[in-house]
Amino acid sequence: MADAASCNSTERECPFGSVRRPCRVNIVARTLGAGMFKAYRVRLPGLIAFLALMPVVLHSAAGSAGTSGKTLSILGKWTGTWTNANKVTTGTESFVVQTQEGSTITGFFCWDITQDPATCSSNINDYESWTGTIDATGTLVITGQLGDYPAKLSLNGTSISGTYQNRRIASHKGTWAVARAP
Asked: Which terminus of the chain faces fewer neighbouring Cβ atoms within 10 Å, N or C?
């Protein structure tokens, strides 16, 4: 017959004949000493209550746009608008991603959406080629002929928004946003 002192197992109930009380669970925690262990006795209900109060950290396997850390393809034509911060002017645009190899992207802006992006390059005032990168978080770093265009892909992968800054003319700066063209 077991006594109450033997009630330190991980079993749910104490051995027959012992005093009815919650069992204790031996928890072994490594101490700072090399190869040394120290045992602590904790009442099972207390341990459960403690663990219930601990913050839960959820680690999602999904990166930008649910891509599990992979870079989402943004190839193709995107359309939207730009707004100049200083002059409060707006316009329409096409953002075309011509190539994407891993995180490296290339393409062009067509600053007048009324023109077909296929023929936009014939009007130098409306066309700007660029090179850039996109990472697994959806952050775009784009360098154009005239300016820089840092941006962010939306979580659902259907829109891109960012800022622009002309490297030659300080007053030419603002925001831009595009969505996948139908």
From this structure: C
pTM for this model (two decimals): 0.60
Question: Would you place residue 136 in the very low, low, confident or very high pLDDT band (cuts 50, 70, 90)?
Answer: very high
Residues of the chain with CATH 2.40.128.120: 64-180
- d(CA 81, CA 159) in angstroms, rounded, equals 12
Q: Is the domain 64-180 a CATH 1.20.1260.100 member? A: no
Angle value at C-alpha 163, between 160 and 164, nearest 5 degrees? 120
Determine the straight-line distance between the first and last CA of the chain, rounded to whole angstroms: 79
Q: 86, 104, 98: which is closest to 169 by C-alpha?
A: 86
Half-sphere exposure of residue 115: CA atoms within 13 angstroms, side-chain side: 20
